[in-house]
Structures are given as C-alpha cells and as structure tokens.
Amino acid sequence: MKASVILIFTTAIFFTACKKNSGNQTSRENTTAKYTCPMHPNVVEDAPGKCPVCGMNLVRIAKHETTDLMLTDSQIKLANIVTQKVSIKPIGQTLIVNAKLKPNEDQTTLISSRAAGRIEKLFIKETGRTVKNGEPLYEIYSETLLTLQREYLLALTQYQSLSEEKRYEHFLKAAENKLVLYGLSKKQVNQLAEAKTVQPRITFLAPTSGIVEEIGVAEGQYVNEGDKLYRIENINSLWLEAELYPHEASYVNLGDRVSFRVNGFESENLSATINFLSPEYRANTQVTVMRASLSNPGLRFKPGMQAQVFLKHSLRNALALPTDAVIRNEKGAHVYVQSEPNSFAPRPVKIGVEDFDQVEITSGLEENEIVVVSGAYLLYSELILKKGTSPMAEHQH
Length: 397
Description:
It is a single chain. The chain is an alpha+beta fold. The chain has four domains: 28-64; 69-92 and 317-395, Beta Barrel (conserved putative lor/sdh protein from methanococcus maripaludis s2 fold), CATH 2.40.420; 94-104 and 235-314, Elongation Factor Tu (Ef-tu), domain 3; 111-230, CATH 2.40.50.100. It is built from seven helices and 24 strands. It has helices at residues 2-32, 73-78, 143-161, 166-181, 186-195, 246-249, 376-387; strands at 34-36, 44-45, 59-61, 69-70, 82-85, 87-103, 108-112, 117-122, 130-131, 136-141, 201-205, 210-215, 222-223, 228-233, 237-244, 257-262, 270-282, 285-295, 306-322, 327-329, 332-340, 343-354, 358-363, 370-374. The longest helix is centred in the N-terminal third of the chain and has 31 residues, at 2-32.
C-alpha cells in the first residue's frame, strides 16, 4: 500500500515538473516570437494582433528562420549588386563651406572703342549670349577710320605705280599696320585693297570666344576712343571662391586639393587645387578668401553657380566602407556580408566618423571581409518581403 502511494506521488511530481518546464519553454517561445502582416511584411510586432495598416490578423514568424538571401547570377546583375573587401582607409571629419563659381579674371577680355564715332549697329544686344572668336560684334562710323582707309588706298596706289622705289613699300606697310592697330583684321584690309573704295561703316569682330557679361553701349550712341563696349568672359576655366573664417582657414594651404560639388551636379565629386589665399576684412569680420581654379570642359558650369567645398581634417586610418553600403533604421545599422557565392547575410555594425563618401566601421566587421557596397537597399527590401522581418530584429536586446 505504501509503495503504491509513493509511486503515485512520484508520478504526479514528474508530470507537474514536465508541465512547468513545458510552460516555461512555451513562455520563452512566446517571448521571442515575432508577428507580421502577410500584406505588409514591414510591420513586425512582438505579440499577436491586428495590422495597423490594413487590419488583418498578424501571423507568427518562425523563430529560427535564417536571414541569408540566395540570389541567382541574373538577379545579382539586375539588382546591380557590387561587392568589395573591407579595407583600412584614411578617414576624418569633414567641414562644409559654401562657395561660388566665378569667372577667371585672367581670361576676361574688355573690348573698348578703337576710335571715336557713332555705333550704327550692335550684332549682340543682350548679356549671357555665347560669342565665338571672329563673330561680328558691332558696326561703327568713324571719321578717323575713314581717314586711315584713304591713307592706305593712297599708299597702295603709289606702291603699285612706283613699285621700284622701296620707300613706297614702307609707306604701304605703315598704313596697313595703322588699320590693324585700330582693330581691322587682315581679311578686312585685303578686302579694302581689292575694292579700292573706303567703307564708311566698319564691322569689328570678337577677338576671343566666351560669354558676353556686360554691354556698355547702345545703337546710335556716340563713343569716344577708349570707351568700354563689351566685356567677354572665357569660361573654359573658372574660379571656385569661398570665404573662410579663421578656424576654417587653418585646414587649408596653398597647393592643397579640395573636393567640392556644384549645385545641380550633386552626383559628381569634383576636385580643384587651391592657388590663392588672401586674409581680408569684410563686413566687420576677418575672413580668408580661398580660390581654386577648375577646368570647364563642355562649358557645363556657369559663373554664379553655388557650390559646397568639403574640407577634411583629423584624418586617421580605420576600417571604412562607402556610405551607401550601410543600411540604417531606428534599430541600428547593418551591412550585407557575402557569406558564400550568391549568398548574402545582414550583419549589425557600429559606425564612427563619416563623411560624404565613406563611413568608419568600429565593430562588426574585419578586414578583407566581402561586403555589398551597391544595391544594399534592394537586399534590405528583398529580405523584408521574403522573411517578413527586419534584419535587425533578432539582434535587439
């Protein structure tokens, strides 16, 4: 009888313990379980309920479901997945300074009147127009130019009649040089020699190519010798100019290469060499004018465009990745590591100093590991759609 009671009591304890263990295990499973919406996989909750977006019942996500993504070669190509090895690079803090593109004054041409007279016609009447070398600019009537033409034709007639005497050749050369010095081209002088008739109106041509930035005359206006008519800017080369405060000026020196971006061309990382630093006092503030020259092939950039200069300082060597390789959300940052060929797995990382091109990785990666640097956001979206959970969900404490 006693043996039967002991056996029944032992069995009861065993089943009670099993039930408690089962309850504890179920409790742990329920604690770690995640629920998502079949129609909105980006919705992830810790408990069952309704989807806050569409109202559907949330479904449970498998606890030990792997977060690795397997892609085919065609999928990798279509998603533009690009990988590279993690390496140690110089990285530091970046200071952003506003700048402006200005005309290169070394290539500015100021066109003035060669002789007194009346402007009969302007071929270019508005600023901002592009002009080419040799293109007509204006037409002028000038008594001075009429007199010089008559002198040239007289010298030409004397030379042709008395060619054996050398002095008439010198007279002809002198008369021709006067016309050239007053702005006529060699072609115009030759046309005058062929026509043997003075031209009351002389057309003056552009001596250089560029953009007309200023027009200082109007049709019908009388001008004196030396009066300003046009200012032409050659924009094959431009100046990048910025005003630096004293603490900013300490980060630059003559000959340094600086990175910059022009508004409207943000996708292009450009660089130029600093060739001018001038401390000045402007608007009751001490500043240093920084200037760098840049080439302008295709004349894409125009004077007046705004730009941002990136001054890097406090450089040090550290593990670094391109900025686009790191995915960030409210739960932290992670990258996608290539674990096997065509297989990518998310991995949480901690980031440090960053600039506009790269970010420092302080933990989570080791040198020479292969990481996705282009297309990481597509992998992030694909993982949420396929697995129904955020890559960082299982890494939260």
